[in-house]
Automatic annotation (TrEMBL):
Membrane-crossing residue ranges in chain numbering: 12-35, 47-70, 91-121, 141-162
Keywords annotated in UniProt: Cell membrane, Electron transport, Heme, Iron, Membrane, Metal-binding, Transmembrane, Transmembrane helix, Transport
Domain Cytochrome b561 bacterial/Ni-hydrogenase: 10-171
Native organism: Devosia albogilva
Name this protein carries in UniProt: Cytochrome b
Keyword Transmembrane helix carried by entry: yes
Lineage, broadest ranks: Bacteria, Pseudomonadati, Pseudomonadota, Alphaproteobacteria, Hyphomicrobiales
Main location: membrane
Localization per record: Cell membrane
Keyword rRNA processing: no
Length: 172
C-alpha cells in the first residue's frame, strides 16, 4: 500500500492518521464525559490525559488537513452510492473536521484564558473553566462531535454488515 491514496482506496498515511485520530477522539470524549460526571470533584490525572491527548489530536488534525490540501487526494466515491449518500457522507466528514477544529481551538482557548496550564501539569487549584466563554463552545461542540462520530461509525458498519460492499476495506 502506498503512502498516498488511489482512486479506489486510502493510502497508508491517511489510514494511520484516521485510526490514530479515531482513538484520540474516543479517549477525548471518554475523559471529557468522565470529568463532566465528576461535577466539582478534582479530575486528577484525567485532565492531564485529556489535555495531552487533545494536543496530539490537534497535531493529527493539522497533519490531516495539510495532507489533503497539499499532498494527496481522497479516493472517488464508491460505485453504487446514491447522490444523497455521497452528499451525506461529505456533509458528515466536513462536520467531523469542523467540530474537531472548533473543539480543539475552544479547549486551547479555555486553558489559555483561565491560565490553567500550571495547575494541570504541576498540581494545584484548578480554575473555574466554566467562567470563560470558550468552555461552553468546547462542551457543546464536543457533544455534536460525539453525534457525528456515532453516525459515521453506524454508516461504516451499515456498509460493512448490511450492504456488504466492503467499504471499510478502503480504510484498512
Amino acid at each position: 500500500m502506498s503512502l498516498k491514496s488511489s482512486p479506489q482506496r486510502y493510502g497508508r498515511m491517511p489510514v494511520v492518521i484516521h485510526w490514530l485520530s479515531a482513538l484520540a477522539v474516543v479517549i477525548m470524549l471518554a475523559t471529557g464525559l468522565t470529568m463532566d460526571s465528576l461535577g466539582d470533584a478534582d479530575p486528577g490525572g484525567i485532565l492531564v490525559v485529556h489535555v495531552l491527548v487533545g494536543a496530539t489530536l490537534a497535531l493529527l488534525t493539522i497533519l490531516r488537513i495539510v495532507w489533503w490540501l497539499a499532498i494527496d487526494r481522497q479516493p472517488e466515491a464508491p460505485a453504487g452510492l446514491s447522490p444523497v449518500q455521497v452528499w451525506s457522507a461529505r456533509i458528515v466528514h466536513l462536520g467531523l473536521y469542523l467540530t474537531l477544529v472548533v473543539t480543539i481551538a475552544s479547549g486551547i482557548a479555555t486553558v489559555a484564558l483561565t491560565g490553567a496550564a500550571p495547575a494541570i501539569f504541576g498540581g494545584g487549584q484548578l480554575p473555574d473553566f466554566e467562567a470563560v466563554p470558550p468552555f461552553f463552545a468546547h462542551a457543546t461542540v464536543s457533544r455534536v462531535l460525539l453525534i457525528l462520530a456515532v453516525g459515521h461509525i453506524a454508516a461504516a458498519l451499515w456498509h460493512q454488515f448490511i450492504r456488504r460492499d466492503r467499504l471499510l476495506a478502503r480504510m484498512s
